[in-house]
Amino acid sequence: MNQTNPATPGNANKTPITINSLHHWAVRCRNAEETRHFYEDILQLPLVHVVYHEHVPSTGEYCPYFHIFFAMADGSWLGFFDLLDDQTSTPDPDTPSWVTHLALRVDSREALLAMKHRLEGHGIEVLGVVDHKIFDSIYFFDPNGMRLELTYHTGSPETMSNLMGRAHSLLTTRDEKARERAAKRRQEL
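RESULT FIELD:
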């Protein structure tokens, strides 16, 4: 009997695989309690799980850490690693601070505005509300220096369908736009 393994590369496009949702997204934090205060007390995401390990389960490497998790309404989690050294992730000096960020969605414009006021009431600087035409956003930083965005979706199903229909053709202009940017930068020198 000739059986084909569906996991082999030749069958990769034949086997339907559905990625359903985000389970968790994890980054390094400076201090687990400081991070807990921000995400649980200010953003109101409940702390749902804490793990302490002295060895990394996947590699066996010795590196004591706490791994903390906060739940979002859809069941997905945000995770943070406290490596017990009071260090946070080092930003890439070649990447502008606005590029790397985590965007989370709220249910209404009222909720977006309420969170903006809540953050400001805790002394956190908030940029926005910014109208992106298909969603409104506010931006701020967590205590680890990570940029966060809260969004409220405003695009109609028709608008979103039209944008999806044009996405691939717009992306084909990427190399041309990169050449234009490079030429402009050469002119500025």
